[in-house]
Design a protein that fits this description.
The chain is of the alpha+beta class. The chain has three domains: about 1-110 and about 150-215, no CATH class; about 220-310, no CATH class; about 335-535, no CATH class. It has helices spanning about 15-30, 40-50, 50-65, 85-90, 100-105, 110-120, 130-140, 140-145, 160-170, 175-185, 200-215, 230-240, 250-265, 270-275, 285-295, 295-305, 350-360, 370-385, 405-410, 410-425, 430-440, 455-465, 465-480, 515-525; strands spanning about 70, 95, 155, 315-320, 325-330, 335-340, 360-365, 490-495, 500-505, 530-535. Strand 9 (about 500-505), helix 24 and strand 10 form a beta-alpha-beta unit.
Length: about 550
C-alpha cells in the first residue's frame, strides 16, 4: 500500500492538512497485510486513488464539525474549485449526496430560511424562531426540491473507518486528526516513534478497540452477559488504573458505575462491590444506598467507611478490602486559623489567603505539579527508555504501563539504581538540569510542556541538599507514578535555612481525602514538615 509522495507546497497552507492524513495512512500502510483490518486497508487504497485536490478537500472535511456540508461553501485555497474534488469523493465513497430536507435546512442561516419562505409564497410563521421556520419549509419540501431552491449538500461517509483509523494510530478512541494537527502546529516531539502494528493479530486490535469503547460508554450491551466476566475484569483494570492519558474523574466514575451495574446484572455482586470501591469519589444517591442495602448491611457499612472522607485531624475507621476488616486512620498534625476568606469557592483563592497568612520566606501554590516535576527531573531517561511493548504508537506521551502496577517490576533494576544514586548524591541538581536539557522538549504525561520556573529550580536545589529525602520521595513515586497526580499538599514552603515543608489547606467545610491523608502521613517519615491548615471564615467586627 504505497502512498503517493507529497506534492510541491503551493502558496498558503499547501499540503499541511493532507500531510497529517498521510501520517495516519502511512502508519497503517506499514502494517503486515495479515494484521491490517480490511476496512482500514480499503480506506488507504481508496484514498491513494483520489486526485490530489480531492485528498486535500477530504483532509479539510475531517477537521470540520458535523457530517453535512454545503458544496458551494467548500472553498479552500489549496483545493480551488470544489466541484471536481467533491465529485471524486462521491465516486470514491467518501461522500454521499444528502437528500433529507430537514437536515439540509439546518445548515442554512436564518435569513436564508426567510428568503425561501418568500420565494415559495409561504406566509412567515408568527413564531419566527428556527424550529418554526424549518417546520414551515419541511411542509413545503416537494416545492423546494422541484424548484431547486436548496443548495447542493453532501454528507461525510466512512465515519466508522475513520474512528478505527484514529484508534489504530493513537491507541485510544479520543485521538483524531485535530489532535495530530495541534501536535504539528506546536511542534511537539515524542520519546519513541515505533514502526509496525502494535497488535499481534486482527483479533487483538478488535478486542482493544472494544475495551476502549466500553470504557467510554459507547459499547456496553455485551457487558451484561454472564460470559463476559473476563472482559469486565479487563475493563475494571483499565478504569481503576488509568493509562498514560487518564480520563477525567467524572467520566472514569461514570464508567465504573456502569460496570458495577453490568456486573450486578450478571450476578457478580462481590465483583460489583469491588468496582464501587475504586470509584474516585463517593457515589451519593438513593439508588446506590438502596442497592447496597439489598446486598447486605455489612457490605453497606464497609462501603460507607471506605468512601466517606475523614474530618481533618480526626480518627476514623477505614475498611480494608484485602483484610476484610476496618483499620483506624492515623492522626495528623493540624493548624487552625481564622481569616477573612474570599466569597465563593474560587480555585486558588483560599490557598492564596493561607500562603499570605503563613508568611513563609518563599512559598508557592503548586499542589501535584511539584511531585510530578520532581519525578520527571529525577528519572525521565529511565521512564522514557525503550522497553518491549512500552511504546507502540507514534504519539505516546508515556509508556503504556506508566500508571499501572507493572511499571516498577519491568524496570526494577534501573529504577533502584537511580534511587541509590539519588541517596548517595551521585545524581545531584546538575544531573537533573542535564536531564531537562535532554528531555525538556518531549511531550509527556507527567508535566506541562513549558519550561520549569526559577522558583521550581530553587525548590529542587533545596531538595538536593537532603539526598536521602529526595531519594525517598522519588522511590515512592516510582513505585506508582499515579501518586504524583493525587493528594499532594497544596503549598510548598521554603524557609531561610533551605528547608522544604508542605501544607494542605482546607477551607470551611472541606475534608481530607484518602490520598491527602496518605501524603501527610508519609512526608514526616522522610524528614519533611507536613501539616494540614484548617481555615475558618472570620466574622465581621460589626
Amino acid at each position: 500500500m504505497a502512498l503517493s509522495a507529497p506534492s510541491p507546497v503551493p502558496p498558503g497552507l499547501g499540503d499541511f492538512y493532507r500531510e497529517r492524513v498521510l501520517e495516519f495512512l502511512r502508519w497503517v500502510g506499514g502494517w503486515a497485510p495479515g494484521l491490517c483490518p480490511e476496512d482500514l486497508r480499503a480506506y488507504v487504497r481508496d484514498f491513494e486513488r483520489l486526485p490530489l485536490p480531492a485528498q486535500r478537500l477530504w483532509a479539510r472535511l475531517l477537521l470540520r464539525k458535523g457530517p453535512r456540508f454545503i458544496v458551494s461553501e467548500l472553498t479552500y485555497e489549496e483545493v480551488g474549485d470544489p466541484t471536481g474534488p467533491v465529485l471524486a469523493l462521491l465516486l470514491g465513497g467518501f461522500l454521499s449526496l444528502e437528500h433529507d430536507v430537514p437536515a439540509r435546512l439546518t445548515l442554512l442561516p436564518r435569513a436564508t430560511l426567510f428568503t425561501l419562505c418568500d420565494a415559495l409564497g409561504l406566509p412567515r410563521p408568527r413564531d419566527q424562531r428556527r424550529p418554526a421556520l424549518e417546520a414551515t419549509l419541511v411542509a413545503a419540501a416537494p416545492a423546494l426540491l422541484a424548484r431547486g431552491l436548496l443548495p447542493l449538500t453532501v454528507r461525510r461517509e466512512r465515519a466508522r473507518a475513520t474512528q478505527r483509523l484514529g484508534f489504530a494510530y493513537f491507541g485510544e478512541t479520543e485521538g483524531d486528526l485535530n489532535a495530530l494537527v495541534v501536535s504539528a502546529l506546536q511542534q511537539r516531539r515524542f520519546a519513541q516513534v515505533p514502526k509496525g502494528a502494535p497488535w499481534p493479530s486482527r483479533g487483538a486490535f478488535e478486542g482493544a478497540l472494544a475495551l476502549h469503547e466500553a470504557a467510554d460508554g459507547t459499547w456496553s450491551p455485551g457487558l451484561r452477559l454472564p460470559e463476559a466476566a473476563a472482559l469486565r475484569r479487563r475493563l475494571f483494570c483499565a478504569l481503576a488504573w488509568p493509562g498514560p492519558r487518564p480520563r477525567d474523574e467524572a467520566r472514569r466514575g461514570r464508567g465504573l458505575w456502569r460496570l458495577a451495574r453490568h456486573a450486578r446484572a450478571a450476578g457478580e455482586e462481590a465483583f460489583a462491590l469491588r468496582v464501587l470501591g475504586a470509584l474516585p469519589r463517593a457515589v451519593e444517591g438513593l439508588a446506590t444506598l438502596r442497592w447496597l442495602h439489598e446486598i447486605g448491611a455489612r457490605e453497606q457499612e464497609a462501603w460507607r467507611l471506605a468512601t466517606l472522607d475523614a474530618t481533618p485531624g480526626g480518627d476514623v475507621a477505614r475498611y480494608d478490602y484485602g483484610r476484610g476488616r476496618c483499620r483506624p486512620a492515623p492522626k495528623l498534625p493540624m493548624m487552625r486559623a481564622r481569616l477573612a476568606l474570599p466569597v465563593g469557592r474560587q480555585l486558588g483563592r483560599v490557598e492564596g489567603a493561607a500562603l499570605r497568612h503563613l508568611g513563609a520566606f518563599r512559598g508557592w501554590h503548586w499542589e501535584n505539579r511539584f511531585p510530578a516535576w520532581v519525578l520527571y527531573l529525577s528519572a525521565a531517561d529511565v521512564i522514557f527508555a525503550p522497553s518491549p511493548g512500552a511504546f507502540t504508537h507514534p504519539q505516546q506521551t508515556a509508556p503504556h504501563d506508566l500508571f499501572t502496577e507493572d511499571f516498577y517490576p519491568a524496570r526494577a533494576e534501573a529504577l533502584e539504581a537511580r534511587c541509590a544514586a539519588l541517596a548517595s548524591g551521585a545524581f545531584d541538581l546538575e544531573a537533573a538540569q542535564g536531564l531537562w536539557h535532554r528531555f525538556g522538549g518531549i511531550a509527556n504525561a507527567l508535566v506541562p510542556r513549558q519550561l520549569p520556573s526559577s522558583a521550581l529550580w530553587l525548590a529542587m536545589g533545596a531538595l538536593a541538599q537532603t539526598p536521602e529525602r529526595w531519594a525517598a520521595l522519588v522511590a515512592w513515586l516510582l513505585r506508582a507514578p499515579l501518586r504524583c497526580r493525587r493528594g499532594f499538599p497544596d503549598l510548598t514552603l521554603l524557609s531561610k535555612d533551605g528547608e522544604l515543608s508542605f501544607v494542605e489547606v482546607k477551607g470551611p467545610g472541606d475534608q481530607l481525602r484518602r490520598e491527602q491523608r496518605e501524603w501527610l502521613t508519609l512526608l514526616p517519615r522522610w524528614g519533611f514538615s507536613a501539616t494540614c491548615l484548617a481555615l475558618e471564615a472570620a466574622r465581621d467586627a460589626g
